[in-house]
Amino acid sequence: VSTQSTWGHFLSVYFFSCVAGMTVTECQEMRCISVRSAKKAHPTGDPNFSVMQPFPSAVSAEEADPFLMCDEFGPTRSSGASEDPDFFPVGWHPHRGMDIMTYMVEGTGRHGDSLGNRETFPSPGMQWISVGSGIEHAEGGGTPKGQMDHGFQIWLNVPQARKMDDPVYGTEPPSALPNVTFGPGATARLLAGRIGEAEGPFRTVQPVQMADFELAAGAQVLHPIPAGFDSCMLYVYKGDGTVGGKAIRAIIANRLSDLLLGRHHERAMPCNGLTNSASGKEYG
Predict the structure, then answer these.
(1) Each residue of 194-221: pLDDT tens digit?
(2) Closest CA to 4 of 243, 223, 175, 170
(3) 88 DSSP assignment
């Protein structure tokens, strides 16, 4: 994936698509299939709480598979951290058979669940669960009054055979998120998967790569997609630039696919995350 930034944050997510007997014979630059605007959504049903959603609102679940959802919440100024340990702005609700990550860009993350976990974590950091057979959890209310609250939640599907696994949980401080340098003014915070020797802390059942890129004005990066991965999505949440020759700006979801063995694999994934620069911040 080739990107150039005026300045920005790109959240990109890459997904693994297994084709029987498929091998990658050469490196080719991925082409941009489409550029779409993220849409406003109300994931809790509360009309007073909205998020920007690159997928499935802009990129359908079928196109984004195995990525189910990417929500960008904020940036907004916090009205204050919860003083009641049992109160969460996003109240208790269940999940089963998926992997979930909450990545905080600004502010303080806060989480409680039916496994007994009750934690807060600073930004940039994350909390994740491979929910398996099921959990209930609640979120939010960790950022002190007056500070900015900004982050992403990303959901990934898992294979049918793994949906009843025991839940696995992790909270990751900023020090646990590797920073990878691609060149002058081009860095990425690795959330999941590997880049070189670095490995992101989000332990997903489905092999993916998720990274939050930040490019300074004029910086460029050519990012190789891991072998066996055939599509990617980028979500630009701050700034603007170009991706694969296409002009992009904040709140844009890019869908890209490369050529493998002379065939197009059009099952592109959202790049979140979806989401700092080359891919927006990654999320996903």
Answers:
(1) 998 999 999 999 889 999 988 888 888 8
(2) 243
(3) -
